[in-house]
Model the fold of this input.
Amino acid sequence: MDLYPLKFKPIYKERVWGGNRLSTVLGRKKKSGKVIGESWELSSVSGNLSVVANGYLRDNNIQELIETYMGDITGDRVYEKFGIEFPLLFKLIDSAERLSVQVHPDDEIALERHRAYGKTEMWYVMDAAENSQIYVGFNKDLDRDEFRTRVANGSLPEVMNIEQAKKGDVFFLPAGRIHAIGENLLIAEIQQTSDVTYRIYDWGRENNPETAREMHTQLAEDVIDYKRHESYKTRYAPDEDSATELVNCKYFTTNLLSFSKKTDRRYAELDSFVVYMCLEGSAKLVCDDDDGNGTVISTGETVLIPAIFNSVCIIPEKDIKLLEVYIS
Done:
C-alpha cells in the first residue's frame, strides 16, 4: 500500500507546572481535572510510541511503521543508523509555572550511564505572555565548586542567564547547557529521542513533599558547560514566501517556512523523513504531484512526510508558518 503524510495521536503528559494554552491557543479539548504540561506529538520513546491518527495505517505505532516500510519512512541512511527507533521527539510544552532547571548529557555519557542517546534540543516560542522568561546558560563563568555551593544554598538563579521570551523566539540547547522554561509559554520542542534529564533546581518545589521530584545534581556536575556564552538566543531574519534556516546540527536541521502562496519543496536528494510542525495558519500538503485531495495541516498539528516522497507542494489556505525538520 502507498504511504502518505502521517498524523499521530497526541500523548498528553500531566505536569505540576502545566498551563492552558493547548486549549486556549490551539483549541484542543481540555482534559477535565488534569494539568497537562506536554503533548508529545511524535515519539519513539519506549513506553510512549506515537500511534497513527489518519488514513488506513491508523492505530499502527511509529515503530511498527518503520519495521514494515524501513527506509521508505525514515530514509535509508537514517534507517541504517537508528533501525526502527525514530530518531527525533517532537513536543508541545505548555507552562503556567517555571519548569525545573535541568541539563542533559551528550551521547557518550548517556550511552555509558543509561544505554540511551543524549539530548540536544531546540525551542520555538509559539505564544508568550508579556513578561515570560527563558532561563538558559550562565551570566558568568562558573566552576564545579561554585555550582555545588549555589545549588546547596539556593542561589543558582543568581548566575543563570535570563532572556525575555516572545512569540517567534528560537533557542538552541546543545547537551550540557542548563535551561528552564519560564511561566506562561507555549513552546514547540524538537529533540533527540531521549528521556534522560538531570534536574538540578526546582524553585522550591523540591522542598514540598507534594511536589518534590528527584534531583540529579551529582550526575549533572560533569556534564554541565560552565562557561558563559555571548549569545543564547538564535538570531534570524524571516522573509515572507521563503525558507529560513534556524538550526543546523548533526542531529537535525530546522527551517522556518513562511508562505502565502503555493510552494514546492524538493526532497529528492535528502534521504530523510521530513516533519512539519504548524505554527500558524493552514495548508494542503500534496506529495509528488498526487492528484488526490492531499492532507491538510493546521495550527498546532504535526505531520510526518515519509522519505519516499521527492517533493511536497504546500498550498496555503491561510498564510502558513511551518517548522520543517529533517536529518541532513
About this structure: DSSP finds seven helices and 23 strands in the chain. The two ends are 27 Å apart (CA to CA). The longest strand covers residues 88-95.
